[in-house]
Amino acid sequence: MKDKVVIITGAARGLGQKYCIEFAKAGAHIVAADIASCNETEKLVKNVGGECLNLELDVTDFDSCLNLASKTLEKFNKIDVLVNNAALYGTLKSSRFEDIESDQWDKAMNVNVKGVWNCCRAVVPSMRTQKSGSIINIASLAAIYGMPYAADYASSKAAVLGLTRVIAREVGKDGIRVNSVAPSMVRTDSAAEFLGEKADRAFDVIAKGQILQKTLEVDDIYGTILYLAGNQSKFVTGQTLMVDGGSVLL
Ligand SMILES: NC(=O)c1ccc[n+]([C@@H]2O[C@H](COP(=O)([O-])OP(=O)(O)OC[C@H]3O[C@@H](n4cnc5c(N)ncnc54)[C@H](O)[C@@H]3O)[C@@H](O)[C@H]2O)c1
Fold it and tell me: What is the pTM of this model?
């Protein structure tokens, strides 16, 4: 990742923040973008010796995504990697599919699907010009497993898999790769928020359903993201990599 320019959306906390730190440790220049403040992330990236452009971003607003691309190009002259990590998750109220509020459904689709589409269409022109790039879209096991009581979230993440495959086919000839990563439940603030008081029990049940009977932690995912971002995965595109301890086997 030495001197690669890596944009990470949803970088204010949780997994996005972790990816920023790990990409910086690997030598990349970081663009940390979120609708919330990335000041803490910027500090953590600088603590490990990295360079960080801290940008406010609303992925649902295409102009905001264009601003992300142009500010990145202004500072670093190129975009090598985009990690589409921003999503609504913990704040989505869990309920039976027929009880989900229409407004919540629309918000989930707007951020989790349109947001990915917006960021991809904002950065692809510059990747096309440089004839290279790697886009990693964060999906979820929820899409493949069919997570109950989360039809909005699971459907939005299933759409991310479809979008990944389509864009991968359309941009491959320009040297751009597009892949998805689908983690199972990870112990983050957002997951705890989503699961509420049942969190510990839920993590236990999930772990018991995996081949590797352990709860997925924040430290267990970034290696897969770094792999997809870099040259070691240069012949991998359009794929979904499960990081789920062997919960579903594709
Ligand atoms: N934690 C898990 O169990 C888990 C499992 C599978 C997949 N994922 C996925 O991993 C990613 C990160 O998860 P997390 O647990 O760190 O979640 P999180 O809620 O902590 O982080 C999501 C980030 O996205 C940002 N965001 C929300 N709306 C935005 C918008 N309109 N524009 C820009 N940024 C916006 C939030 O401010 C937040 O910082 C998400 O895509 C999530 O769906 C998480």
Answer: 0.98
